[in-house]
Design brief:
33% of the residues lie in helices and 22% in strands. The protein has 281 residues and is of the alpha/beta class. The protein is elongated, with a radius of gyration of 21 Å.
């Protein structure tokens, strides 16, 4: 999956989104603080005693002089990303699964570039932690090796209270009911911002007008639905369900967003553009 998961055009668009965010932060971003924790953005000429791992090889090749990146203290708080890895994330194809991984990388990458630390919770897997601009590429193999979606929803629990300025972002499907969302309210406490993005498939938002055989992705009996008649009624019920979910998310402390997942093979760059337009990035 690695080649099709993060194709070259994805990173081209990710770089554009990173530049766009930096332009938006001009005049507001705090100055880098010199320290001894992570590699920063500032560059200077190499001096005796500098570590080889601090050399910026691209800048060195460009200038013809040895250039290193200065060390700075981490800043920007922490971003906690929660990935819904239940079976309903990939009911009959992998488009939503791929979209979730791509968005997770984009959010992690941009946060690390801004000096934040990133923690990723993915289903029942051990949480992964990343810090430092130089480690942003380490997120890629973690996402490539995620287990396939399976089982039921997992409500994550944090072992320690989030630090000041931390942000929470959940990437899920649109099938968590308003009642089930009540258990997420405890998770939002202590975060400065909490965002929930529901990733929708075109077949969920506008299913074909025909007889459909439906099977619960996380268990349950199958059922037959005839959408050749009563399609407007389905649309009304779907809209009502989403409004209830939105109210449930707000009550739990989240800012709710929705994002459509198109065909994964052609959607790597466009996904990031849509995410930026809808406020996901």
């Amino acid at each position: 999956m690695s080649a099709e998961l993060f194709p070259p055009e994805f990173f081209v668009e990710l770089a554009r989104q990173g530049a766009r965010q930096k332009m938006g932060m001009m005049g507001e971003r705090p100055e880098a603080h010199r320290g001894d924790q992570v590699l920063g953005f500032e560059r200077r000429r190499w001096q005796a005693g500098d570590r080889r791992g601090h050399v910026d090889w691209r800048a060195t090749a460009r200038t013809g002089q040895p250039v290193v990146r200065s060390m700075e203290r981490e800043r920007g708080g922490q971003l906690c990303l929660v990935l819904d890895r239940s079976a309903s994330m990939a009911p009959n194809h992998i488009d939503r699964d791929i979209a979730q991984r791509r968005l997770c990388l984009a959010l992690s990458w941009l946060a690390l570039e801004q000096g934040a630390r990133v923690q990723i919770f993915a289903g029942n897997q051990t949480p992964a932690r990343f810090s430092g601009w130089a480690r942003r590429a380490a997120v890629i193999p973690f996402l490539q090796n995620l287990e396939a979606p399976s089982g039921a929803d997992v409500v994550q629990e944090l072992k320690r209270r989030p630090e000041a300025g931390s942000a929470l972002h959940v990437l899920s499907d649109p099938w968590c009911s308003a009642e089930d969302l009540q258990s997420w309210a405890l998770l939002t406490q202590g975060f400065q911002t909490c965002q929930w993005t529901s990733l929708m498939l075109p077949s969920e938002n506008a299913p074909p007008k025909q007889v459909l055989e439906l099977q619960g992705a996380e268990g349950g009996a199958s059922m037959q639905v005839d959408l050749r008649k009563g399609y407007a009624q389905f649309q009304d019920s779907w809209k009502e369900f989403r409004l209830k979910q939105r109210d449930g998310l707000i009550a739990a402390g989240f800012h709710p967003l929705e994002l459509l997942c198109e065909n994964a093979k052609q959607d790597a760059a466009n996904l990031l553009r849509r995410a930026a337009r809808h406020g996901v990035l």
